[in-house]
């Protein structure tokens, strides 16, 4: 199934990606090796807006599911039920949407050219790639537990590296260092704002039990 828009030839010549395992795997590899090229290719696909939001919802659901699996695999871990799962779903949605708003808003304020739909697409894809790495973490937790911490740190470094390169392409910036510093400051700002909002809504850890 193609992801391009069939707009009476309006987007004739726009790259079209087939949604199959081979194509997705190839794009994951490209993202991990040449993230700027992967970001440019994703933007060029001109994915319909409803497909972008569907992708956003799918990665949130997968994030909650893999998070639950990780909890169950931890020593003395217990499955989250009811309010706990709702809290995790709300938290994952808030974090990812907050990142989209921050990356698009702060980038535009600093002279960037990225649009909200493209930001949504790139960050949803970035989260999907991170879920692949989370699956590796889970495998390590099962097979080689001592490597779990090291892989977690590596995943964090990969996330920051990919996000920096995605922002460079999205907004047309040229300084990776400035983008990286901006990401760090924005991350802390968004985290504090989301934590405050969730507490106000009654979704604090104690209330989620």
Automatic annotation (TrEMBL):
- Judging by the UniProt lineage, the source's domain of life is Bacteria
How is this protein positioned relative to the membrane? Multi-pass membrane protein
Q: Where is the signal peptide?
A: none
Tell me, what's a Pfam family for it?
Yip1
Query: Which stretches make up the Yip1 domain?
Result: 31-194
Which positions, given as ranges, span the membrane? Answer: 53-73, 85-107, 119-144, 151-173, 179-203
Q: Where in the cell is it found?
A: Membrane
Keyword set, alphabetical order: Membrane, Transmembrane, Transmembrane helix
What's the protein name?
Answer: Yip1 family protein
| Organism of origin | Roseinatronobacter alkalisoli
> What broad taxonomic lineage does this protein's source fall under?
Bacteria, Pseudomonadati, Pseudomonadota, Alphaproteobacteria, Rhodobacterales
